[in-house]
User: What shape does this take?
Amino acid sequence: MKAYSLEEGTRLVKAARHAVELYITTKEFRSEAVERTLQGFTQKHGVFVTIYHYPTRTLRGCIGFPEGIGEIKKLIVEAAVAAAAEDPRFVPVSHLEFEHTVLEISVLSKLEKVEGSAEQIKKQVKVGRDGLVIEYGYHKGLLLPIVPVEEHWSVPRFLDEVCIKAGLPEHTWTHGTASLYKFSSQVFREKEPRGDVEEANLEEL
Assistant: This one.
């Protein structure tokens, strides 16, 4: 998907960094202060913000919204702050630590249901293009398109891993009892802390 230009993506990344910085350093954080810098960003897309240590790209936090439940200018601020302070896998990011991180945002397309036999499902999923969501009862898991690329997973491994992410047994995606969805994303990321922003081509990573 191509929802935004590089210039627009750069504005979203810089707004995400600004939101985290204000949250960490300001006692009375107000999201509106950042949202006002994103005039015109009223589209509704799912969005995730990921924080990595630099230069190791060790994951430091990742939170987002699979679907566009609000304007992206609001969701980007909420996701950025949550990635820094509310990811249950990590302690909150400190101000000093934040200076040694890079931010990455993923703008998501609408979810598309994937159905059929196991073989049919595998043919509908492509590593480097698709992310996955699986839902079963109270269980829900999501993996962004960049994850299987970085981990060098095959399509079957990717499908198994999204089940594991949801707290489900591997191969749940083959049973026909769970709901499986795919989506694409447009990824913008900092090259270095506070540095230039680039659009990532997942199929070339």
